[in-house]
Predict the structure.
Amino acid sequence: MAIQHRQSGMLTIENEDFHLRKARLADADAVAEVARRSRKHFLPYLPDLHTLEEDKAFFRSVVLKHNDVWLAEVENEIVGFCAFKDGWVEHLYCLPAHVGKKLGSTLLTTAKEAHPHLQLWTFQKNTRAISFYRRHGFMQVKQTDGSGNEERMPDILFEWRKP
């Protein structure tokens, strides 16, 4: 059962295993590390295009400044996050040891509660993510050959609308 607390104008959502909170700029490095570790584990076929320092700078100067970013924490360690803005889920990553524990679902629900319509991209080879998003009501809109993404990997655009 989730428990919601409001402290200092921030909503914290807790359950027995983890809690959610809104990210602060100071969380940027840890968020970048979660994204990097998750991508390396679940998407080993992707090229490694950036250094960890470049990833940290990107999350600090772009992701946390232009998105709502919610974190899942276990014992004060960031183990997952979702970055979203009006109409888009930009990033959703959880550390491998914490996948399958409802963190991703809870983070995605946070984005869905904030926006009546969301879109997101995922790689065609990422069958685990494809199944996850379909279970959460996302429908495939189109597929591409990957020419529009930095990795040059075929991808899929998904869309969700609040019923």
Observations:
- Residues 3-161 form a domain with the Aminopeptidase fold (CATH 3.40.630.30).
- The chain is about 30% helix and 35% strand.
- The chain has one domain: 3-161.
